[in-house]
Amino acid sequence: MRAAVIYTGIFVLMLMLWTPAGSAQRAVGGCDCIPDQVIVQLLDPATLPAVAAQYGLDPQPVSQVATPPIFLLTITNGQTPEQVVAAMTTPAPGDPRVIFAEVNRKLSQVERTGLDWTQGRSWAIGRSWAIGGSSKGYSRQWFTQRIRLNEAFEQGQTRGEGVTVAVLDTGIDLSHPAFSGRLVEPKLRWDFVDNDSDPSEVGTLRVDPAFGHGTHVAGIVAITAPAAKIMPLRVLDQNGEGELWRITAALIWAANNGAEVANLSFGYPDDVRLIKDLVECADVGTTPNGTTFPIGANRMAVVAASGNGGNRIPVFPAAEDLNGMLGVGASTRVDLLAAFTSYDRSWVEVTAPGEDIVSAIPGGRYALWTGTSMAAPIVSGITALVRAKNPQLTIPHDWLDIVKETSVDKRFGNVPPWGEVRLNRVDALCAVTNTINCPIPSSVTTDFGIDYKQTK
Where are the alpha helices (DSSP H) in 231-371? Predict the structure, then answer.
């Protein structure tokens, strides 16, 4: 449902039932989170009234999910979310009735401008030459050659048939020719911002910097795995912002409606428990502490962009370092780490081309965009190819392991500001043929003025 004025209320999932949250999104003190809300998991749901009374919370949850239950609760005593979480969790080990408590923090597309933990890199800013590309440029661009995509189609005999990739983003231009015949049926799409079945993008080209992000990301999935289906799920608003509970709802929706790969081209600067537990459950059915989510036997791999900070500062969820998720950095045309990439070898497991990638934008057009948001959907597409090629493998981390272990293992010594770099640039041909020692192509060893010393 589209309107001239966008409704900004928060909608959340309660075992697939929708409930509007009354608070508007704004920063609270130093917390970039939803005001008047906390997320709490209790060992025993029967203790909720007592816990709510002690910490100034409404005992009637806004929503809940998982077993043991994870509640989204409203703060009623005027304290900030950070103050309530601190009261529950400090001093360690905290309230014994509480498994974890955290704020319902906001998150953003990693190309969004104005963030202190990532750099905005957009075709909409100083890149007007990139607007108005062609379908020919889309189908013949450099990254498909670098990852040997056509060779993978021919030798692997798969283009992602039977696999669905969920794209959690700003929405999509549903009528763009790049998606003709490639989207899931309408009943499987959803807008988690406006709470309706039309996940179209909202905004204006060149006015709203986030506008087109989801369409561009989905277009990259479409070219990498052209026979896979794309499930567009709008979780980021017109400003490129979302929040954790909304993402949780969308991931559960995706898993329950047939998605086997989920692409997350967004991030946040703090570690959180809720998404970590859900990703672990989507991988193997439960978490180490026994938490389960309402996804039944459905399993789903998750691919997340590492962020564009150009430093080693972790960006989550990519930095969670989970078996069922790959954190993805960006590589260049000459197989070097892109200068803008947030990277540390401890949590960025693979890279993929991420500079000047041609893809779809709203209005049936094409444009270039740069960022790890563009690298992640290449990895999501290759994961779909691997899944289609290996139907006997039913655990998502097995598909992701193949993508990682068949990557181009190009290593460099001390590269400021990242230290030791292991590129691990994905290769579609090696992935679908399960070739572990993927050959290192010849290339130059400098880029963006950075001196690289290759060690392997």
Answer: 244-256, 273-284
